[in-house]
C-alpha cells in the first residue's frame, strides 16, 4: 500500500505537466495493480475512470487496454459469457490494427475461457495461435503462458505425458526469463499431472513449491488455486497439510476469488 501511495503522489505532481500518455498509463497501472491483488471492484472503477480520461485526451490505445482490463476481471470472476464476448471483440480490433501484443493477450484469454468451458478444440487452437503471435513479436512471457495453456489442454484430454512436456517447457522458459508467477502456474500444471498419474507425494511437493512462490509474491488468486490443489491431494489420503476448505470442483472462495474446476484427469485420480 505504501508503494501505491507513493505512486499516486508522484502522479499527482506530474499530472499538470506530463503528457496525456504518461497520465493515462499511470492511471491504468494503478487499476491493473488493484486487479492483480484481487480488488476487482476498485480495479473496475479505476479502469472506467481511466477510460474517461483517455477518451478526453485522445489516448486511444490506453482506452482499449482499459477495456481489456475489464474483460480480464470478468474472466477472473468467472463471468465467462461476458468475458468471451469482450475478448472476441477486442481480438478483432487488435487484429485489424496489427497490434501483436494486444492480439496475443486476447487470443490467450479466449483460449483460457474456452478451456474453463471445456471447449478443448478451440482452446488448443487459440493457445497455439497465441504462441505463434507471441513468438512473432518476441513476447517470451506470452509464448510461455501459451505453452503452459497447451499443457492444460493436453491434461484435460487425458494425455498426461504431453501435458508434462508442455508444462516442463513452460517452467523452463519462465525460469530462464525469470518470471516467477509464470513459473508457479507451470508448476501447478505439473502438480496436477503428477496427481493424474497417482504420484501423490510428488504432486504434493510440487503444489507446496507453487504455493510458496505465490505466497512470496503475495498473489491471492494463485494462493487460492494452490489451496484448491492441496484440497484435492488431501482427499487422496496423501500427507497434505490441512487447508481451508476449497472445493476441487471450483466455485467462489470466501474471499470472493472464483476458481475454475480442476481438470477431469485429476478428478479421475481422486
Structure description:
This protein is mainly alpha-helical and 270 residues long. It is built from 13 helices and 2 strands. It has helices at residues 2-14, 20-36, 40-57, 60-76, 80-96, 100-116, 120-136, 140-156, 160-176, 180-196, 200-217, 220-235, 264-269, and strands spanning 251-252, 258-259. The chain has a two-stranded antiparallel sheet with strand order 1-2. Helix 2 (20-36) packs antiparallel against helix 3 (40-57) and helix 9 (160-176) runs antiparallel to helix 10. It is globular. The model is unreliable at 242-246 (pLDDT under 50).
Q: Name the average pLDDT.
A: 88
Radius of gyration: 19 Å
Strand content: under 5%
Decide which structural class fits the backbone.
mainly alpha
What general form does the structure show?
globular
CA distance, first residue to last residue: 40 Å
Order of helices and strands: HHHHHHHHHHHHEEH
Largest sheet: 2 strands, antiparallel
Number of strands: 2
Q: Strand order, biggest sheet?
A: 1-2
Number of helices: 13
Low-confidence stretches: 242-246
Question: Which bin fits the share of residues in helices?
Answer: over 70%
Question: Could you give the topology of this structure?
Answer:
Elements: H1 2-14, H2 20-36, H3 40-57, H4 60-76, H5 80-96, H6 100-116, H7 120-136, H8 140-156, H9 160-176, H10 180-196, H11 200-217, H12 220-235, E1 251-252, E2 258-259, H13 264-269
Antiparallel strand pairs: 1-2
Helix pairs in contact: 1-2, 2-3, 2-4, 3-4, 4-5, 4-6, 5-6, 6-7, 6-8, 7-8, 8-9, 8-10, 9-10, 10-11, 10-12, 11-12
